[in-house]
Write a structure and sequence with these properties.
Layout lengths: L5 H8 L7 E6 L5 E7 L2 H8 L8 H9 L2 E6 L3 H15 L14 E5 L7 E4 L8 E6 L2 H14 L20 H4 L13 H18 L4 H18 L3 H20 L10 E9 L2 E10 L2 E11 L4 H15 L6 E4 L6 H12 L4 E3 L4 H21 L4 H12 L8 E10 L2 E11 L2 E2 L5 E4 L8 H21 L12 E5 L2 H13 L6 E6 L5 E6 L2 E4 L4 H36 L6 H11 L2 H6 L2 H5 L6 H12 L2
Parallel strand pairs: 7-10, 10-11, 12-16, 16-17
Antiparallel strand pairs: 1-2, 1-3, 4-5, 4-6, 7-8, 8-9, 12-13, 13-14, 13-15, 17-18, 18-19
Helix pairs in contact: 1-2, 4-10, 4-11, 5-7, 7-8, 8-9, 12-13, 13-16, 14-15
């Protein structure tokens, strides 16, 4: 649906100044639906109201609903960025990236009763209860609440406190030192509530990265103070808590050795749908894994930039290093803004190798897993989506064709074509090719011959009105080999004026799939588990298929050559003998009379056959 006000909005945008500022899009009710910043207001805003063909789906929908816009001039693009973040946080516009993860917000709940309880909840439901939050990461809240209950020996059951049953016995958690058993009167109400207060203080620090260290330092100070005052039981209690904190934090997943604290952003894309994963690393440990869904904002660069601005507008703690899986728009401005927020130098990094690249890939794998779960996709589907993004394809390749050539020292050369549909073999579309023109083991010439015949058949079957088999073009071609085979394929595609992406599958010295080859160099797939499995599977399958056909053809040729080497026995008589006796052993066992009785085989032929085969 085209915006009826598009012409007037464009005219208004063309009158904007050539200055930096913030623009505010509004719908017919005057509600703010989008806020953005621009280095040059006129240029940026007018782009929205020009041709809609170059916009993403999200931007087109936004433009359809715009009925007016305002703007605020700023002294610099950096000032505009700060104002943009502030206004978005205040207005929460519909078409800006808004941080709501795949599970929603989470809270720490403290019940309002004599024996208070601490719980992890998804919603505020009891008016009398107290809540800490909301928090964006359910992972952090649930893990922190579980840790607090164990450290401070608080119950996680539904028993009544204090217990009145004569035969009431503590549960297992009491005996392993993880509960103070208020249900059995093992702790006084005052001591119990003191433990709850301490747990609340611990949680306030724990759910905010870095807070545990501050709490531990405070706890150590209290332990030392109790010891100096000769309150040894209290000091021992503090010591036990410190040991419990140490045991629990040691069980947290260690990503790498060291004390680095950093955030890792990576995205998975399917068409215009984007899933972001954020790994928060605190002193070498994974402290949080968060997932957010949004839509493409014109480009991946813009989408990354928007995500960073929204995320750190909400989160107060900014690490010194932020790892990205690709380039973000306005990187220098965002670095400057994050540096001011953090009060220390902050760098945005796109790693190319080493530990940080491994972290980036871990985050990307999580993003693809979540994206697959939302659409209930299989692992093969997820691998195809990830492969499409890795190769820069506009959409995941539904049909992938792969080709290989097989021969023995140039003899009996054949070609094999396999097809994968949505990441799994599609055997109905497999095809075999006998090499008819290329000679002497010319692999490149053989590949050109195979592809020429394949795409010639495409035009033939398409004109006949067929829709399957050769009449369907692949979304991606993967060649079993490096750039030489890629160039052979590209040569054929250019001849037919077809625009199909082509890449090579490269093996290492041990014949294991190593990378994908393109004109721009090699793309490593070793760190991408699902893509590695998919590409390896395709390469193994096309090799198996081509070499299987070659062995079949070569075996028949070898059998025929045994007979055609006999004086007087040509291809025609050889064919007659195979048809009559079926196997070479049967021909060897036959006597001269049996051989001469075969139509077309003379007595002289029979004698020659027995003479030659007798010595084999």
């Amino acid at each position: 649906m085209e915006n009826p006000n598009l012409k007037s909005l464009r005219e208004k945008s063309m009158r904007l100044p050539l200055d930096p500022g913030v623009y505010i899009m509004k719908n017919g009710k005057g509600e703010v639906i989008y806020i953005g910043k621009a280095k040059v207001l006129k240029n940026r805003v007018s782009q929205y109201f020009g041709s809609q063909n170059n916009h993403s789906t999200k931007v087109r929908r936004m433009v359809e609903n715009v009925r007016d816009f305002d703007y605020i001039l700023c002294g610099s693009e950096f000032e505009a960025l700060i104002l943009e973040c502030s206004l978005i946080k205040q207005n929460m516009p519909k078409y800006n990236i808004l941080l709501k993860d795949d599970k929603g917000y989470r809270y720490v709940k403290i019940t309002n009763e004599e024996w208070r309880r601490i719980k992890y909840v998804k919603q505020k439901q009891e008016k009398d209860a107290k809540y800490i939050g909301p928090y964006l990461s359910g992972f952090v809240v649930s893990e922190s609440v579980d840790a607090a209950l164990k450290i401070f020996k608080l119950p996680d059951c539904n028993r009544s406190f204090p217990g009145t049953g004569v035969n009431q016995r503590p549960c297992l958690r009491y005996y392993i030192g993880q509960c103070s058993a208020p249900c059995c009167g093992k702790i006084s109400l005052s001591d119990y509530n003191a433990a709850v207060d301490d747990a609340i203080e611990f949680l306030k620090g724990e759910v905010k990265r870095g807070g545990t260290k501050e709490y531990v330092e405070a706890l150590e100070a209290r332990m030392n103070a109790y010891a100096e005052n000769l309150e040894f039981e209290r000091a021992a209690e503090m010591r036990d808590r410190l040991n419990a904190i140490k045991r629990i934090t040691e069980k947290q997943k260690v990503i790498f050795s060291g004390s680095d604290t950093e955030d890792v952003f990576a995205l998975a894309r399917e068409d215009d749908r984007i899933c972001f994963n954020v790994l928060r690393i605190n002193e070498g440990r994974l402290s949080s894994s968060e997932t957010y869904f949004t839509e493409l904002d014109d480009s991946l660069e813009n989408t990354r930039a928007e995500m960073l601005k929204r995320y750190y507008s909400v989160h107060g703690d900014v690490p010194g290093k932020v790892i990205l899986d690709g380039v973000a728009a306005d990187e220098e401005l965002i670095e400057q803004w994050l540096t001011e927020l953090a009060g220390k130098k902050v760098r945005l990094l796109v790693p190319q190798k080493g530990r940080q690249l491994e972290l980036s890939q871990m985050s990307k794998n999580n993003a693809y897993e979540k994206l697959a779960q939302t659409h209930k996709r299989s692992k093969a589907d997820t691998a195809v989506i990830e492969l499409g993004e890795m190769l820069g394809l506009p959409s995941p390749p539904e049909f992938i064709e792969s080709y290989d050539i097989s021969h023995t020292a140039g003899a009996d050369a054949v070609g094999g074509m396999v097809v994968f549909k949505n990441g799994v073999p599609y055997k109905d579309s497999y095809r075999k090719f006998k090499i008819k023109e290329a000679q002497g083991g010319d692999d490149y010439g053989s590949m050109e011959e195979v592809l020429t015949r394949r795409f010639a058949r495409y035009f033939q079957e398409r004109d006949e009105g067929k829709e399957t088999g050769f009449a369907r073009l692949p979304d991606l071609i993967l060649m079993d080999g490096g750039l030489g085979q890629v160039h052979s394929a590209q040569k054929v595609l250019q001849k037919f004026d077809l625009n199909i992406p082509v890449f090579g599958m490269v093996k290492d010295s041990k014949h294991r799939t190593r990378a994908i080859a393109s004109d721009g160099g090699e793309i490593s797939i070793s760190g991408t588990r699902k893509v590695f499995a998919l590409v390896t599977g395709i390469q193994d399958e096309v090799h198996r298929y081509a070499i299987g056909y070659h062995h079949q053809k070569h075996s028949k040729g070898a059998k025929k050559s045994v007979l055609t080497d006999i004086p007087g026995i040509g291809p025609k008589k050889s064919e007659i003998l195979w048809k009559e006796f079926k196997t070479l052993d049967a021909i060897k066992r036959a006597d001269i009379a049996d051989l001469a009785a075969v139509p077309g085989i003379s007595n002289t032929d029979a004698v020659n056959i027995k003479k030659v085969l007798h010595y084999q």
